[in-house]
Amino acid sequence: MEIDYQLRWPLPLAIRLTVKGFTVLLGASGAGKTSLLKALAGLIPATGTPFAGLPVAKRPVSYLPQHYALFPHLSAWRNVAFGLAHLPRSERERRSRQLLAQLGLGTYADQWPRQLSGGQQQRVALARALAREPQLLLLDEPTNALDAATREEVMREVVAIIHDIGVLTLAVSHDPALAQQSDRVAVLAEGRIIQQGEMAEVFTRPQTLGVAQLVGFKNLFAGRVAELAPPWATIDTQAGPLRARAVPWLSVGQTLTWGVRPEEVIIVRADRPLSRPVADNRLSGRLSRLARQGLYWHLTWEGPLRFEILLPRHVQDRLALTEGQALEVAIKPDYLHLIPSSD
Amino acid sequence: MRAWPAFRITLQLAAVTTGILLLVGVPLAWLLARREFFGKRLLEAVILLPLALPPTVLGYYLLLVLGQHGPLAQTLGITWAFRFEGLVVGSVLFSTPTVLMVYREAFRGLDSDLLQTARTLGAGRWRLWREVILPLCWPGLLSGSLLAFSRTIGEFGVVLMIGGAIPGRTQVVSIYLFDLVQALQLAEAGVVATALLVLALLLVYTIRWIEGRWRSTIS
Lengths: 343, 219
Fold this sequence. Notes:
- Chain A has helices at 33-41, 76-81, 89-102, 118-131, 151-165, 176-179, 199-204, 209-214, 313-319; strands at 2-7, 13-18, 22-26, 47-49, 61-64, 136-140, 169-173, 184-189, 192-198, 219-229, 232-237, 240-245, 255-260, 266-267, 282-293, 296-302, 306-312, 326-330, 337-340.
- By secondary structure, chain A is an alpha+beta fold.
- Chain A has a six-stranded mixed β-sheet, sandwiched between helices.
- In chain A, helix 3 crosses helix 4 (118-131).
- Chain B is mainly alpha-helical.
- Chain B is globular, with a radius of gyration of 20 Å.
């Protein structure tokens, strides 16, 4: 679905966006993500296509706000039935219970919202939204109100349900982890979409520094193109020349930003010699800090540059790295990402 | 029982006042709680004014407006001073600020997300009120109405000025009690005072009970 929307209030937005499968719109808080969803739902005025001009109640969209907005005075199935007023009474209840069962909440149909966990409340709200068989499902920060401990699991289930049912979904979020579960990612900044595409494309090839930061790039540095010999380019950096995959917009002498994702820095092992071209991008330094981050280890490496590195725990179990030790790292040229300088 | 006419007038007055406040106050409180419009501050100040005025001052101006030589008598032929209608006008104005504040708080507590979501689920204005707003706000509205009822029973200054305490017509029970004490009929005064005390206790207790139940359903 192609969305082309213009908003003037509460902030100016001009959005052209393709929604496919489960699409996540990333943006910092205050970028206008919620405003766009409310405009699509008809709750704030906007012009464009599709749906603009239709009254709220007539739009084939379902909107799920951050805190789900379950009616506290109605049981789970009556919440779902709220959107089915066009059906006969008995059909309403049958359909609501059936949907709740489909979402694994069959036994909770008669419970009150306050008796349900955050994840269950979200699924009831999802059932209520799906009951109207919308053309477009809008999710506002769906991970925000979930416990950190169960967030990933709950969202994986929600995404699976959305895929099973096959409803077109636009979720807005500032959470890169949610975007990683999506089919398509768009990034909103300065009132417009600054990049959109397949999830892997946006996450590994951000086109601006802002997008890079939003999708989890941590190690970003200034550099200059020293030599172009397709398919390779040599970049002058603080750590000396590094090799990257040449991209069409490069020219010799050009300044740029280069970066590498923290999970894509390679730890060099003495027993496993590197082959070229990775061997060209080899840097010596020491491990200055080692800290747990969920099931990962977060490393701070200092050499000619300072890298943040994420290591799966099975790797650390094998390598048994300790703080202060000398450590060589390397970057695969394909993972050394180049971003044009903004000036 | 000689006090009965005074009790009857008082209860009638309280019921009519409460009904009018419910009809006028609920939409007004909704506007004040959930809409922004030009002149809102001024409107709020005017509504709150009776709170800052001595009831006799309010009664005095009502007497001027509703009396035989007042503007309403000259333009519309309405003379409500020293009549039940006058008592009603006085009581409504007197209780408006307190009751409106209770109604307004009931509406302010309502989550906008619920209303917006209900609209996206196809609910029109009527369904929104019937199935979302009233079921969630009724305890606040009821508690405001009980407050209006009990304040009207307790009123003295306004009704004395505008009504003149005519036995059987405009003499409410609080004034009747005052007259009994003036006439040193202390035994009957004791009975009347006790009856009022019990009634007030019952009303205040009911308000607190509803408020307690309300909090436990919402959160």
